[in-house]
Amino acid sequence: MSDPTPLVLLVEDEPQMRRFLRATLQNHGYRLHEAVNAAEALALANQWNPDLVLLDLGLPDMDGLEVTRRLRDWTQVPILILSARGQEADKVSALDMGADDYLTKPFGAGELLARMRVALRHSAKTAEAESAFDFGDVHIDLARRQVLKAGQLVHLTPLEYKLLVLLVKHAGKVITHRQLLREVWGPNASSQTHYLRVYMAQLRSKLEADSARPRFLTTEAGVGYRLRTEEPAGASSESSPP
Amino acid sequence: MFVVSVVISSLTAQVRQQARDACQREARTAALYALSRELAVSRDRGPILQAARNHIAGLLDAKIAFLLADPLQSAATLEVALTDFALTPELTALAQWVQIHHRPAGLGTDTGNQARALFLPLHTATRSLGVIGVLPSDPQRVEGLAQRQLLETFSQQLATSLEGLQLVAQAHRAQLQVERQELRNSLLSSVSHDLRTPLAAITGSATTLLDTPAQDAPLHKELLETIRDEADRLNRLVGNLLDMTRLESGGVEPRKDWIPLEEVVGSALDRAQKLLQAHVVEVSLPADLPLVPMDAVLCEQMLLNLLDNAAKYTPPGTRVHLRAWAEPGQVVLLVADEGPGLPSGSEHLVFEKFFRGRADNTRGSGLGLAIAHGIVTAHGGQLTAGASPSGGAQFRITLPVAGEPPQLPMEVNE
């Protein structure tokens, strides 16, 4: 991102959704190109090389999943999926295909901007490795491979630690079950979701104040997990610029 | 003398013939009576056809076939309902001809009389119900006029019974349709009211906003919050309607994984945060609860609906309890509140669509608990409502746990 104001490619066929998104994004200082179908989206992506793509899954001319696949052939631009509730399987496919995150319609401006910030942040710092990460009263020292909770050393098993580091690496973004299983347990375990669920439960009981009501290690039912870095948007109005 | 003897012998023959005829008539009448009695008590097609087959086969020493028209299809399409002999393509074609022309064909008739079997139409004044095929062991058994008459009477009797069956089925379908229509109407009026109320609030707030000077910040905020909240409500209602529709059309097949109950409770509580911000939620889940085969998305929705129900029907500041334990073969989860409890006698009704606990509370769509019930049922479990020890409402969910998940690979945990 050399340009200080990120360029967003909005791919959405519903005019009223474009109207809302255009107003919101321009009001928050984003530059914007709009595509109303997949063909236009692919052409515009090629021409403008955007910093972020907002992609509606239900396009008239091509499946949003296919658009994701074609974009991923040549670019690592962050892709945020806009989808309806009940499309869990499609969301998961898009994420496994390389999309970065998703928003379920209807969503508020705060939620949208928060997701966009996370996605842009990740694409900006892919190269630089962080040495530490904090959430709540938990401090993760990545260099020393140590985890502290309220200043106390917490013992994690090697797999628990591996899982936690993966969540930290994608902090703020959703990661699918398949992605986590493949990274932590290897390619043969990608359908054994209960391994993952049991380890997530262990992580929660060690790091969350109340494991039945996690504030950070959150579940996206049917999709995967998200290490939440901001308080859920919507309750307070988000207005910070990108 | 010769004349006299001829006359006498002819008279004797006549008398004998008459006596034989009378005998036959009586046998026929008895057979017909027996058949109609059997037909009258049968309410299904199968027994009716069986009875008719047995009577006719016994009387004529013949093999029988019934080819019937499907009342919901074109009358020209025949299906074999029962047959004692092989229906060759030629015989089937003959039966088809009978169905179309409403006239007997085959053995002993003007049409296709080289065939080994006789086919007669089964028809009443208004309907062509099908065709009966008769393959006698001795062709002469069906060639006589009396036998033909008897067969035709039997056919009519059978046709009338079959028609009666069709009429009953038709009446039943019509009634179902009426009931379905009535349900749809009450559903529509309830839904359209629920959809219009938030829409009215949104439209009203937005138009007021457009007319209000921008400097009236408090009013702006209030109107905007109304729009947001009502849109949320609308979204939940539409979601409920979609869930209900999917559950009712049988299109919901739970995708079960072995899941810690805590995870589903956690994600449901996360989504219910805003709804329950005025309540205190107390969760107590034992650490050694087994994994439960659940569809994460559906079960999260089920819990969310129960929590939403508790939030709606209990005063702010009261507590909502979530407790679970394992029993042999199942896990039990209780969602209990400290509100006024369910109206007595409504423990079953609360799971009915569009049932609302209290007339003065119309904030709910009356769908949430019905959906929760549908989801638990789809998992092979049970959801029941009752009173909690503290007097509030209590919902008890059981989810079956059969077998065990694949063992986790051992990890050295020093």
SSE layout and pairing:
The complex is a heterodimer of chains A (242) and B (414).
Chain A (H helix, E strand, L loop, with lengths): L6 E5 L3 H13 L3 E5 L2 H11 L3 E5 L7 H9 L6 E6 L3 H9 L4 E5 L3 H16 L7 E4 L2 E4 L4 E4 L2 E2 L4 H12 L4 E3 H9 L7 H15 L9 E4 L3 E4 L15
Parallel strand pairs in A: 1-2, 1-3, 3-4, 4-5
Antiparallel strand pairs in A: 6-7, 7-8, 8-9, 10-12, 11-12
Helix pairs in contact in A: 2-3, 6-7, 6-8
Chain B lengths: L1 H40 L3 H16 L1 E8 L8 E6 L5 H13 L3 E2 L11 E6 L4 E9 L8 H67 L5 H32 L8 E3 L1 H11 L8 E5 L7 E3 L1 H18 L5 E9 L2 E8 L30 H11 L3 E6 L5 E8 L14
Parallel strand pairs in B: 7-9
Antiparallel strand pairs in B: 1-2, 1-5, 3-4, 4-5, 6-8, 9-10, 10-12, 11-12
Helix pairs in contact in B: 1-2, 1-4, 2-4, 4-5, 5-8, 6-7, 7-8
Radius of gyration of chain A: 18 Å
Please give the number of β-strands of chain A. 12
Shape, per Cα inertia axes of chain B: elongated
Tell me the strand percentage band of chain B: 15-25%
Percent in strands of chain A = 15-25%
Q: What's the average pLDDT of chain A? A: 88
Structural domain tally of chain A: 2
Topology as H/E string of chain B? HHEEHEEEHHEHEEHEEHEE
The CATH topology of the largest domain in chain B: Heat Shock Protein 90
The CATH architecture assignment of the largest domain in chain B turns out to be 2-Layer Sandwich
How many domains comprise the coordinates of chain B?
A: 3
Could you tell me the number of beta strands of chain B? 12
The CATH C-level name of the largest domain in chain B is Alpha Beta
* CATH class wording of the largest domain in chain A: Alpha Beta
Oligomer classification: heterodimer
Low-confidence stretches of chain B: none
Q: If strands are numbered along the chain, what order do they take across the biggest sheet of chain B?
A: 2-1-5-4-3
